[in-house]
Amino acid sequence: MNLLASTTYAVMGLLPFAIAAPITCDRRNPNCGPIQRISHQYNVYHGKAAPFPADELAPLPANTNATVGIDDVLFQNLMSAEWVVFSFYQADVEAFNTPSFTSLGYPATTFARIAEIRDNEAGHLRIFENSISNASLVPGACKYDYGFGTSAVQFLAMQQLIELVSMSFLSGLARDAQLETSKCALVTLATVEARHTVWLLQDVYASSPFAGPSDTAYPYANQILNTTRQFIIPGSCPLENPPYPTPSQNLPVMQTRFNASKVAPDGKAVFEFEPQIAFAEGKEYFVVFSHGVENVTVPFDVETQSATIPDFDHRGLVLAVLADTPGAPVEQSVLAGPDVMSFQPSALSRFV
Fold first, then answer.
1. Please, are residues 130 and 182 in contact by the beta-carbon 8 Å criterion?
2. Side-chain half-sphere of 164: how many Cα atoms within 13 Å?
3. What's the rounded Cα separation, in Å, for the pair 158 and 352?
4. How many CA atoms lie within 13 A of 32 on its CB side?
5. pLDDT number for residue 39
């Protein structure tokens, strides 16, 4: 090892404003552009302009003479999902700066850490597009609306939920991946999202970063991916993009509003559906809550569209779905959702 070169790279890694120069090369070539674990751009570029590979928003066309990869559809789904996540952070970097957060009492490093997470997410884009064979199209970016506007507080609240959802769909898709290398990649990326969440909870909210002995496992990852479509502006995706997610049940959106103004999971909650579900007379329905590695089923009252929220430990992520069978044992038994719930930190305990 060249110690001088290693030292130089270490010093460069501390520079807070690296420059993302325009990249002109064949992006189907994994050696094009900054290389993972060699370039510092996926960690310390804090500029406003989108870094590689997000400086190019168009899809990458397929080569019809190549062989389709066994996990291509999975990584196409992940690429489309990652565009949602990356663009969320890119919108923040463009909208805010350090004083946007320090003026509200947040740590002086908050904006820099958000920019660093944006860089990590750009690295995820590169990993996913490199994982799609040349025989399959690499999805391009759509246009997105996250609704946080000029509110740094609202951005941070949404960040907690987006990171939790990212962890959940990455770990869930590891179950669907065919190649062992794909499974391994998804698990390692999920741990990165966990680090992002730990930073937010510990540094920004001065809260416990721990979610208990297990994060939440959910078996139907594409249903979670489907919830991210709420941020996509209809009609804004490239026409070449495959449907997202593939396959999709196109389940109704499921959201919770508490009776009165309660924000703790200890009573009845009213559920709303978009589009509204036509419930069959005399049929039983259930709300299945996934938390940790377990799920809890409670009866759903069709007349009031409500269910009793189980007394959870107020940690980590809870996913709720409407089902026609206790436990939602198969994908087809889920009729709506999932509804994404976060009870940690308590200041952000709410249903989305």
1. no
2. 30
3. 9
4. 15
5. 82
Residue range 181-196: mean pLDDT, rounded = 94
- Among the residue ranges 95-104, 242-251, 297-306, 334-343, the one predicted with the least confidence is 334-343
Return the bridge partners of 351, or none: 341
Do 347 and 205 meet the contact criterion of CB atoms below 8 Å apart? yes
For 318, list phi and psi in degrees, rounded to 5: -125, 135
Q: How far apart are CA 110 and CA 120, in angstroms?
A: 15
Q: How many CB atoms lie within 10 A of CB 45?
A: 24
pLDDT at residue number 256: 84
pLDDT at 265: 47
Residue 22 pLDDT grade (very low, low, confident, very high; cuts 50, 70, 90): low
- The DSSP bridge partners found for residue 31 are none
State the Cα–Cα distance between residues 352 and 216, nearest whole angstrom: 17
Write the pLDDT tens digit of every residue in 229-238.
999 999 999 9
- The pLDDT mean for the chain works out to 87
Are the CB atoms for 15 and 55 separated by under 8 Å? Answer: no
pLDDT at 127: 95
Tokens coding 96: 């805010």
Res 15 pLDDT > 50:
no
Give residue for tokens 């690295």: 123
